[in-house]
């Protein structure tokens, strides 16, 4: 098996096989990051459904979260914060919701005025 390394990724090719198998570690990292936030969102939804079942709007907002990326070790952003709270900016802050979780720790959810979640911060990751 030959290995070729270039930049942030590595590809491996099987020789003498008609099908080539590619492994891109950076893609694996990206998928792992997306899976982590999905797991955290599932936990947040479970907590809200148990502790605050009347807050259907927040539960639905969590279920609708898509895309985004890790801005830091502790903050996952769903909405671009450029020009925050300025006219025509997507990020118009409204409020925070703080949730305590036994395993994840303190979770801060940024709620925006346009009925979206701007991001989720995991305070125990700041240590």
Account of the 3D structure:
- It contains two helices and seven strands, in the order ββααβββββ.
- The longest helix is centred in the first third of the chain and has 27 residues.
- The strands form two sheets. A five-stranded antiparallel β-sheet has the order 3-4-7-6-5, covered by helices on one side.
- The model has no long low-confidence stretch (mean pLDDT 79).
- The relative contact order is 0.14.
- The protein is globular, with a radius of gyration of 19 Å.
- It is an alpha+beta fold.
Strand content: 25-35%
Shape: globular
Helix content: 25-40%
User: Order of strands across the widest beta sheet?
Assistant: 3-4-7-6-5
Q: How many angstroms separate the termini?
A: 42 Å
């Amino acid at each position: 098996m030959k290995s070729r390394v270039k930049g942030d990724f590595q590809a491996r090719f099987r020789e003498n096989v008609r099908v080539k198998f590619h492994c891109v570690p950076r893609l694996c990292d990206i998928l792992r990051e997306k899976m982590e936030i999905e797991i955290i969102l599932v936990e947040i939804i479970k907590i809200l459904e148990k502790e605050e079942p009347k807050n259907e709007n927040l539960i639905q907002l969590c279920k609708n979260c898509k895309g985004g990326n890790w801005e830091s070790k502790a903050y996952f952003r769903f909405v671009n914060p450029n020009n925050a709270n300025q006219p025509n900016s997507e990020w118009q802050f409204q409020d925070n919701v703080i949730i305590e979780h036994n395993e994840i720790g303190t979770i801060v959810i940024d709620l925006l005025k346009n009925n979206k979640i701007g991001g989720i911060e995991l305070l125990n990751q700041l240590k």
